[in-house]
């Protein structure tokens, strides 16, 4: 349920309503727009009574939200949310490119890539310190040493760091180093991890699980917002279908669908979405044309020697070509890069 306050409501008027919500045992979430303040009420819906709130002073309307997700919906917040990561805004006019290696392997590998992607125009650096792999025998990441290398790359280049956290008990550690915490596709349904991340005030990049519906995707984001962290960016990274010539099927339909239903930004990962380096640039063009707020691209100085996902990683030169080709499309749709 949401409460729409009158346009001339003061901070005191709003606080009075919030206090009443808390008195009744519910949780209040504020969304201050240009013309209206909207207050979301979270709690056991069976106990809601519209008249408990509709008769309060300066309440214009009380509207039930029928969708299972409340705080991520446009009913709660009509305006687009903008998530700031190390000074970079995701969800605004600018299309944000996040690039870097799948795994942090060494200082030389990471720094050379960080310098290359920044020179080409990337706004943020991605890199995996902890890697959740299908096989227990594959490279699992450098752990905290990888986080330290990412921190060094930020010091050298100024690029904000995006890296994955896999366990709820590692959230605070990763948050010490990262500017944005990534939730991998396998962990989208890990409610314990989602609740842990909801308690911190760091931006979150949440990838869609490869078998999840749109409703499930948004409900996972709802876990994070309901816990108090509204700095969430969604990421489409491909779903499993009967297609055998790519690693996954990149579902670009979800971009306009999310834009209609939610105020959260959404970016696209064409590297995991295709699993093929030669498809990354074409699908990047398509994602931006479809309205994505950014891209997540894997880049490696020598993909043939990568510890993980070399087959879907761009070389430094190929990433430069992608950034050059992006400019024309971004300009054509009225955005900037």
How would you summarize the topology of this molecule?
Layout: E1 2-5, H1 11-23, E2 27-32, E3 37-42, H2 51-54, E4 59-63, E5 83-85, E6 88-90, E7 96-100, H3 107-120, E8 124-126, H4 144-157, E9 160-164, H5 171-177, E10 180-183, H6 191-198, E11 204-207, H7 214-226, E12 232-236, H8 254-261, E13 266-268, H9 270-274, H10 277-289, E14 294-298, H11 316-332
Parallel strand pairs: 7-8, 7-14, 8-9, 9-10, 10-11, 11-12, 12-13
Antiparallel strand pairs: 1-3, 1-4, 2-3, 5-6
Helix pairs in contact: 3-4, 3-11, 6-7, 10-11
Shape verdict? elongated
* Percentage of residues in helical conformation: 25-40%
* Total individual domains: 2
Total strand segments: 14
Q: If strands are numbered along the chain, what order do they take across the biggest sheet? A: 13-12-11-10-9-8-7-14
Roughly how many Å is the radius of gyration?
21 Å
Describe what this molecule looks like in 3D.
The chain has helices at residues 11-23, 51-54, 107-120, 144-157, 171-177, 191-198, 214-226, 254-261, 270-274, 277-289, 316-332, and strands spanning 2-5, 27-32, 37-42, 59-63, 83-85, 88-90, 96-100, 124-126, 160-164, 180-183, 204-207, 232-236, 266-268, 294-298. The chain is an alpha/beta fold and 337 residues long. The protein folds into two domains: 2-63, Alpha-Beta Plaits (2-Layer Sandwich), CATH 3.30.70.1140; 83-332, Alpha-Beta Barrel (TIM Barrel). Strands 13-12-11-10-9-8-7-14 form an eight-stranded parallel β-sheet. Strands 2-3-1-4 form a four-stranded antiparallel β-sheet, covered by helices on one side. α10 runs parallel beside α11 (316-332). The two termini are 37 Å apart. The relative contact order is 0.13. The model has no long low-confidence stretch (mean pLDDT 93).
